[in-house]
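Journal club side-thread
Mid-discussion, someone asked how the predicted structure for our own chain would compare to the paper's figures. Pasting it here so we can look after the session.
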Amino acid sequence: MAQATFSVRMDEILKKQFDELCQEFGMNASTAINVFARAVVRQRRIPFEISSPEKDITREGAMQAFKALRAQARENGVADMNLDEINKEIGLARMETEA
């Protein structure tokens, strides 16, 4: 199969970090880019999500998020917990994580 050259410009520090990480994976940057390209062609999509953070957080958006959380709390039966009960749940969850 004929080979073609693919040139990419990137920040020097990013390239150094990328090269070092590729070495840890046991490959060079060229191999890593080829792995990425094959995944894109095989899956016919970028193999990870590319998104842009929301530009502006609006009052309306914040209220929608708050209402969604309240509805979820009602569904889970925890909408009427007081602060002491919430702190107790947090403490139990932390103990489970540490165990």
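Post-session note: The chain has a mean pLDDT of 87.
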